[in-house]
Write a structure and sequence with these properties.
By secondary structure, this protein is an alpha/beta fold. The protein folds into two domains: about 5-70, no CATH class; about 95-105 and about 130-140 and about 165-299, Alpha-Beta Barrel (TIM Barrel). Helices cover about 35% and strands about 20% of the residues.
Length: about 300
């Protein structure tokens, strides 16, 4: 790659024991380099004209290595062909989470029309270039599971006829699982993620039922009834002022559950959470992230 494409302002550097972590501030992509290269990394912000030939060669080598790893490169988004279809099946949910960004109160009982869903799927399969990912979004998608059946069956039939591949996934709170819905999901390779904000103390501070009760017990019920299914799901937590300093504790808890993976998103000041004291503190969050990252490095 040309050095002119490289922007050193996108690069963050952190010493981690004998190695140095180099991260792209925009994409989050990162690599480790030997500690001996930290001096060369410090040259990234220097202009080539002010360096000795040896230092300039070292600087250019570091830029090439980082560029080849996809770090520090300014790129414009490319929109080529459709590859993802998000279907908002319903705005309704059987939970009443305090920070829900999607809550408006006016359209909670609305469900997507079956013909609209299938037509969107048909058009997407016609446009996509070989692969299509379909995401089931809510509300709580399991409230519309009969619609999910129609979509999956129709989508697989259409994709097969067109010689294309189709994948399905979605996000759920796990409270509405049945033997039938679990079997259908497994038989059709639907990958589900579930929402959980940590152990009972952290989770139940914000994730509540309609009558204000905590929801962690319902999660444990799902684990007890469908342990294999739950462990194949990925867990996603929402970071708020309740848990922004507890990333390490959350990681330990999720690991103890044996789930497939853990991801998190930041609280959004919208919906039911608007004007409520859920905004996380960036300083506390970063310190918590550093604690977690240090433990990962330690193994």
């Amino acid at each position: 790659m040309s050095n002119r494409q490289f922007d050193p302002s996108l690069i963050a550097v952190r010493q981690c024991g004998p190695k140095v972590l180099v991260m792209d501030k925009v994409t989050g992509r990162s690599v480790y380099v030997p500690g001996s290269k930290k001096r060369h990394l410090s040259l990234l912000h220097e202009s080539g004209s002010g360096l000795t030939p040896e230092a300039k060669a070292a600087r250019d080598l570091v830029i090439r290595e980082l560029s080849d790893s996809g770090l520090g490169i300014l790129s414009q988004p490319r929109f080529q062909t459709l590859n993802t279809l998000i279907l908002k099946l319903t705005a309704s949910c059987n939970y009443s989470c305090s920070y829900c960004y999607d809550f408006t109160g006016s359209n909670e009982q609305r469900y997507m029309d079956t013909h609209v869903a299938l037509d969107a799927l048909r058009q997407s399969l016609e446009i996509c270039d070989g692969h299509l990912q379909v995401i089931f979004h809510g509300g709580e998608p399991f409230l519309a599971f009969e619609l999910i059946r129609r979509i999956v069956s129709y989508g697989k039939e259409m994709a097969s006829a067109a010689g294309k591949k189709i994948m399905f996934n979605g996000q759920t709170n796990l409270s509405l699982l049945t033997d039938d819905s679990v079997s259908f999901s497994e038989d059709n390779n639907i990958f589900w993620g579930f929402s959980l904000d940590g152990d009972a103390l952290l989770n139940d501070a914000s994730r509540k039922t309609k009558n204000g009760a905590g929801t962690h017990k319902r999660f444990l019920d799902a684990v007890r009834k469908f342990p294999r299914f739950v462990k194949q799901c990925g867990v996603k937590a929402t970071i708020t002022s309740v848990n922004h300093g507890s990333l390490l504790e959350m990681s330990h808890y999720f690991r103890s559950l044996g789930v497939k993976g853990w991801d998190w998103s930041l609280f959004q000041d919208a919906g039911r959470g608007k004007c409520k004291p859920f905004n996380y503190d960036a300083g506390i969050l970063c310190a918590s992230w550093n604690d977690l990252f240090d433990k990962v490095l330690e193994g």
